[in-house]
Records
---
Amino acid sequence: MKVFLQLQPEMRWNLGLLFLAALGFWLSMTSLLPVLPAYIQDLGATDQQVGFVMGCFAIGLLLARTRLGKMVDEQGRKRVILIGAVVVAIAPWGYIFLNSIPQMMVWRAFHGISIAAFTTGYSALVVDLAPERNRGEVISYMSLAIPVGMSIGPVLGGYLLGVVDYPWIFAASGLCGVGALLLASQTKESNPQAIAIDKNSLTPNQGETNRDYPELFRHKGLYIPSLIMLCIGLVFGVLVTFLPLYIRELGLNFNTGLFYGAAAISSFSSRILVGRASDTLGRGLFISGSLLCYAATMLILTNASGTNWFVLAGAVEGLGAGTLVPMMIALMSDRSSSAERGKVYSICIGGFDVGIALAGLLLGTVTQTVGYQGIFAIAAGLALFSFFIFLTQGNAKIGTSLKFALGRTGDRYAQKF
């Protein structure tokens, strides 16, 4: 935490407000994780329809992500953060009045815009404010809002699910979103002229790149991480959509929120340790470890039969998520300039969104054939495939990719300004 003491007081205050806004945002989002699949099922939906509705969240993400990524670069980070905060403050209230699957699909897609906006703007602003030599460390610390939110939100949602009606849970989620909006409105961009790149009047700093989307999509240093995030998005989509239903099918007296709570605790620990280490040892070693953690999580769930196994799976998943997300953000930051960072994030994190959407829309159709355990086995295979891709294609050549993935060499795609 010493890195924050080196910042100016105004900068620390700004980062503090930004962190609290993110905490409110993730409390709102994660409190609904154990609730929505059960709510949709109670509306009379089949497993496939539950997958469709949950997948529509990512469809909203996909439709908005690239446009919002461009907006981050051209109109500033804060404006896009506020868009996400407004949506997360409004969306939970809408579920109170929905009573049909088509309505849920449309509203769930609208809700997805919140993550597309908030996470892209938030990540870009944090990197803008972070000293370059401590970038990984600051990103990891600021991303702690996710595990803290996930340690409280799902447990709270799971608890409320057993004691109050659905409208009260949605209202609690909405109030967290309102808090996020109020806090986000008080944050400041350190240098709006450097952040908002106007194509007509401003140009990037000397030596910086400002590639358009077609160029970015063709760059191996960007599309390979996006493919990896696609695979992990599929894994995470399976987890979010089918874990509550799997626990319900087993008849276990287990609050699904405890899974996310265990994940949050281990995620918190990994983010504190990994960020600083990655600034010295590189991002590759930690990305490799996180992908193996996702594979292990799905294998544990494939064979889980008691509550202790679900807690263990949550802890391992937290190690993976707590490492992969900040490391991928740091990796994309290393490989891009401030003038194009919003677009780069929208592509890489957009791969994750596509995975979540496909998990619900496609894999939900095979649950009756392979069952929930079969779905988790497929997810384990996807995680192992993403590890293989990173091991062989994560850098310029196979040899350097292997060394980069094992922490034996630096990133050949990193930009220096």
---
Amino acid sequence: MTGPVVLGAHVDQADVVAEAQARSMPVAQIFLGSPQSYRGPALTYPGGIPQLKADAAAAGVGLYVHAPYIVNVATANNRVRIPSRKLLQQHVAAAAELGALGVIVHGGQMGKGGDLETGFDNWRKAVDGLEAGVPVLIENTAGGDGAPARSLENLARLWDAVQSASGADSIGFCLDTCHAHAAGIPLPGLADAVRAITGRIDLVHLNDSRDAAGSGADRHESLGRGQCDPDALAAVVRDAGAPVVLETPGDAAAHLRDRQWLLERLDSPVA
């Protein structure tokens, strides 16, 4: 890796610029509404999207938007897939208005006995129908039955599907270390393995895990305090060569400890 690692954290949207500054970080990730609601973007930042865009630009803070967790464009269930596609489009449009660096969305689930081929094709259709004014970064998932983005094998099939869509040039990839660990994917060499499939890593979600490898449990932990191999976590950052967002627990002080932990293990500075 050459140059500093661009490091940020997921923070509350209500005071996102101040939260980023409290962490001495040049980027921040936010939700634009409830992560468990189909109601659409609902920014609580005073002055709304125009004011946040202006304040973030003035402060030099780049913004990522995380789509709601309930978005599942892969599922065969029409009552979930159709509103999920609508919700994703709403958040992508709002993120574009905000001038966000990208929108992160989970790969979804097919459920027990679900047909993964249907899931891959549903992703293709979703990308075909998406009006994306910002990059949309598909994130690998930790567990669940029939998850299109859980294993490297499934990710390869998912990536082939989305690359055949007319909107493929808007799609990128977000690599989550806790999710990979939970899915039983070895962290050593992970960035290279992912890049061999996708050709790119646009963002790293750097998280330790409370649970054992292969557990399927998506429970993030502060860096160095979980069950992920510390050297392997640092190597993912080094090898990915992409911006990094912490989704680890705690306040600004906890994230500053995570920042220091990472700095001590890299041969390059952390911005």
---
Amino acid sequence: MMDSRTRTFHLPVAADLTWGAGLTALLVAAAGAGLQMPPVLYGIAALLYVAIALPIFRCWPPGRDFGWANRATLVRAAMVVLLASLAPFIAGLGNWLWLYGVLCLLALVLDGVDGTIARATHSTTSFGARFDMELDALFILGLCVAVLALEKAGTWVLALGLMRYAFVAASHWLDFMSQPLPDSFRRKTVCVWQVVTLMIAILPVTSVVFATWTLGIALALLCYSFYTDLRWLYQTGRQP
């Protein structure tokens, strides 16, 4: 007699990371061949994907399914790796720069897909939120490099992408910074402003003056946001 209990098939996380690597390789190979990019493009893409996949492989619980929401994020990861890898060479894209902008917009739209899937399947997790946040950080840093390569702003624009990583690095030495932060509409708004202004800055029709002013405002807002969070963390950490 057959067991009436249904069994759920769990795909090993290594399998998900493998098809994610295949998708990333396909996108990067197509862009590299079509745009005649230098071989270093493939090395950058490989390093970025390993930096994403290795922590997932080491931290994901054995035998637990990766989930469809995380798989959607992995698809976006492949696109973000492609965009970040192309960023240093963006000045040579010519008219293809418009396609780069469209792909950035697509990556931004896909940012909301994984969350929608997680809520629909009741699989919202802190891991998924962190996975999504780290991809946002890499996406922003890649856009900063693209803006710098196009000479739309000076090296100061990299602060928009590096401030998050500096915060994470400092939290390893300052205990009060390692506390979880509450959800913040202010933080989300500043993040969206960063991405939108960076995406506008890379477009061929955007002037250097306009890009500099809007990105300068974005940096000022980001500094204010980080200051507000740091003050909250410090005051909370001092309480008994």
---
Amino acid sequence: MAGLAPGSEYSAALTRGRTFVGYRPSLTGTITWRDLTRPITPGYPRNTCSVAVKLAGDRVYVKVLTTSGDIYETSCTAPALVCTLGWAAVVKP
């Protein structure tokens, strides 16, 4: 199982309707971003307004919320951020 090196981090960003997940190996390192709105990750929802990221084992999970209250999720491998799974709807709270 992959673990975080001391000082490393995963981040998520939402800008201009596109969602990105990023990794940097140290606090002063450069973040490598992956665009999760690409055709290789199909099913990206419209009207996304919020994003969250979580590391669990060797996967980085990214959830987005839409303006209509729908939640979608995808994941990438850690730490390399290989993101090839499509977006799937999550049951609303």
